[in-house]
Amino acid sequence: MKEWVTVAEAAVLTGRSPRTIYEWIEDDRLAVRYDSENRMVVLSKAVIRIEPTIRRGRPRGKPTRRF
């Protein structure tokens, strides 16, 4: 397994969408760097470690729509 993976590869590793990986990055749950091709990459061990701690689905108490 590679030490650093792209967002798309991280999504495949976790079975989540790339948007979810970007949300984890935005929430500072995953650190990123840029490779030689200027692509955003994340540490694969961190992705595997964080995935079981994140619950799937809509958070309770938040409305799905505002009227």
Can you offer a commentary on this structure?
With 67 residues, this protein is an alpha+beta fold. It is 36% helix and 15% strand. It has three helices and three strands; from the N terminus they run βααββα. The protein has helices at 7-14, 18-26, 44-50, and strands spanning 4-6, 32-34, 40-43. The chain has a three-stranded antiparallel sheet. β2 (32-34) and β3 form a beta hairpin. α1 packs across α2. The longest helix has 9 residues, at 18-26. The chain is elongated, with a radius of gyration of 14 Å. The mean pLDDT is 83.
Task: Supply the key terms.
elongated, 3 strands, 3 helices, three-stranded antiparallel sheet, 67 residues, alpha+beta
Question: What's the SSE pattern?
Answer: EHHEEH
Number of helices: 3
DSSP strand tally: 3
Q: Could you list the spans in which at least 5 consecutive residues all have pLDDT below 50?
A: none
Radius of gyration: 14 Å
The assembly state of the depicted protein chains is single chain
* Strand proportion: 5-15%
Q: What topology does this entry show?
A:
Layout: E1 4-6, H1 7-14, H2 18-26, E2 32-34, E3 40-43, H3 44-50
Antiparallel strand pairs: 1-3, 2-3
Helix pairs in contact: 1-2
In brief, what are we looking at here?
With 67 residues, this protein is of the alpha+beta class. 36% of the residues lie in helices and 15% in strands. It contains 3 helices and 3 strands; from the N terminus they run E-H-H-E-E-H.
